[in-house]
Design goal:
single chain; eight-stranded mixed beta sheet; alpha/beta; globular; 249 residues; Leucine-rich repeat, LRR (right-handed beta-alpha superhelix)
Length: 249
């Protein structure tokens, strides 16, 4: 296999296996051998991801800024046309912040050209959220943030399995008032979820039902803690134990 063919093969493998750090190192070495600065960029960002507070932090951040300023457009590839904000992590576009319509319009393009792991939606209102959760790219994500929610978020997310999701952040009105669904209808399919962050008031029945399908859940973060009545907080602590962290703003 020629070098260009090998590079294209590695790019495709990285997109298909975004959690495989070894593939990125192999790709970085291959690029560095022919003097391509992207090899250095991948190494710089991988080092920052592994040790964000390491002794070389300032040096690495300066190199990252310089390389991105000169090569962002080229390295983003087809994803650069996507509306919203893209972020490079470990040498590739991994994170995308956008509106639901922007996601629906450009998700296939971004996912085909980058190892997309994280999505942040602003705002995630229910009619559009229903379309988003059924999009095939949504099921491939490892991290999801939904902001500006208005009821039914748990029930909407419970409609589809999210087998790869490791972190979920929900911000908005998440109470049971006005819901057509029962808490039992809000049990999600989240076999890989390890961290759940809820940034607004939430009905305890919904939270308990939603996390029923998350056997690997290690951390539940609730804030602001002062929005929860003492009996509710006590019940959540009894259920989640040391996995629960209640934060105040």
């Amino acid at each position: 296999m020629s070098s260009p063919e090998l590079e294209l093969s590695l790019e495709r493998q990285i997109i298909e296996s975004p959690d495989d750090a070894g593939l990125r190192q192999v790709y970085a070495d291959l690029l560095a051998e022919r003097g391509d600065e992207r090899g250095l960029f991948i190494r710089v960002q991988c080092a920052l991801a592994e040790q964000p507070q390491g002794p070389r932090r300032d040096e690495l951040l300066a190199a990252e800024r310089d390389l991105l300023a000169r090569h962002w457009q080229t390295w983003a590839g087809a994803a650069r046309a996507a509306p919203g904000q893209l972020k490079f992590v470990r040498g590739f576009v991994e994170a995308w912040a956008c509106t639901p319509p922007d996601f629906l319009a450009a998700a296939h393009t971004v996912a085909a050209s980058a190892p997309l792991r994280k999505l942040a939606l602003f705002p995630a209102h229910r009619p559009q959220l229903l379309q988003v959760v059924h999009h095939p790219v949504f099921a491939q994500l490892r991290e999801i943030e939904l902001h500006g929610l208005w009821h039914s978020a748990f029930a909407t997310l419970a409609r589809v399995p999210l087998p790869l999701l490791q972190r979920l952040e929900l911000e908005g009105e998440l109470d049971v008032n006005g819901l057509d669904e029962t808490p039992d209808q809000c049990a999600a399919k989240l076999p890989a979820l390890r961290r759940l962050e809820v940034r607004q008031q939430v009905a305890v029945e919904l939270l308990l039902a939603f996390t029923r399908g998350a056997p690997k859940l290690e951390k539940v973060v609730l804030s602001p803690a002062h929005a929860l009545a003492a009996p509710v907080l006590a019940r959540l602590r009894a259920h989640f134990g040391e996995r629960l962290t209640a934060e105040s703003w």
